Amino acid sequence: MGAELTAAAVRAAAAEIADPQRADDLARFFQVRPGGYGEGDEFIGLRVPQQRAIAKRFRGIDTDEVGALLDSPVHEHRLIALFLLRGEFERTLKPRSEPDWDEAGRWVELYLDAVRRGRVNNWDLVDSSADSVLGEFCRLRGGMEVILSHAADEDLWRRRVGVIATFAHIKNGDASALLAVAPLVRDDRRDLIQKAFGWMLRETGKRVDEQVLLTYLEENAARMGRTALSYALEHRTSEERAYYRALR
């Protein structure tokens, strides 16, 4: 008999393998302390492969149950929910005939609602979902307005969603989304935006065209933050790194 496809069953599966010691370690790592970027979050102590395995067991779950998991105060419940959401979204794109865009849209709207309500509120939650759900939907359906609106948002996590969503385009050889987002985030000196932006620039040089990266750096390195520039230059030669850093 298959697993009961409910949020309660998912939470029970997670509770069976929860590790309090690891929960303490994760709480420190994700800065749940007052003033930390993960302030107030709760952990029960699951590893990411364990969470992926749980999500695999609950394939076919519906949007209401995933939504209930996204409302959990427990970080791992929300990450499992995003793995489930991503899996169900991806399955709507791979039927025998053609994608079910109505169903795909329902999963994307669930995702956007969770982002709006602050349920996708740490870097691992964003990075496991933004490009594979929002970015891929926008790439396939055309239009970048939703990505740009998130990148323009002052909220840390919504802005990071906008930056990471461009990865879907980059993976398919298209730098246009990132170049459109770049003016909206370049001057943001928050560490988690800097890292995301520099990472996407580096991937553009690797997956799209290194000349696109180098041209952008030639024109913008002087105004970029040190962290973003460092991430963007990670795979360049020592001479290139020295040259672009000297432009600041």
From TrEMBL:
Coiled coil: none annotated. Gene3D superfamilies: 1.25.10.90. InterPro entries: ARM-type_fold (IPR016024), DNA_alkylation (IPR014825). Pfam families: DNA_alkylation (PF08713). This is DNA alkylation repair enzyme. It comes from Gordonia namibiensis NBRC 108229. The lineage of its organism: Bacteria, Bacillati, Actinomycetota, Actinomycetes, Mycobacteriales.
